[in-house]
Amino acid sequence: PSPAVSASDPGPVQLLFVCTANRIRSPFAAAVAVERVTVLGLPITVDSAGLLEGGEPAVEQMVRAATRHGVDLSPHVSSQVTAPMLEASDLVVTMTGRHVLGLIEIDPTCQHRALTLREWGARSLNGDPITDWTSTAVREWAARATDRPIGALMSEAADIVDPMSQRWPRTRRTAALIAELVTV
Hints:
This protein is an alpha/beta fold. Helix content is 43%, strand content 11%.
């Protein structure tokens, strides 16, 4: 069945993917999400950002890996996450637990909307997917999903390792994992 969309909840859901530099993991996750949102016709706006200063292109190895998934990252230019971006987002999906903690420092109100991609994927694949793509429902789902001890974020168990400066097979595996876990 298709996810429910409510006419009483105006505006699209704001989905934000965040990683360190917004040059490898988060732009790829966002591009995969955009493809799926488009196919499903869901009212979701997808964006990506990084904790570091922006203005850089996507890393060439990820551009190459993305093409294997039908995604073109060549026009991507990184951007730095801001408090207004976080405030506007209904769901913030990071690549590591430490990214979540860094975002909470920027905007404490995002604590109950920010989770790692592995956390999102695990919940979705284990019977608790987002089924109502409205801002209210997504925020309620996120609040349940982010009810975990802070120590869980620091354990690195939910991290997607940055393949920067790694060999091609690592980047390719990272892209495949991200594509699997984006559960829009």
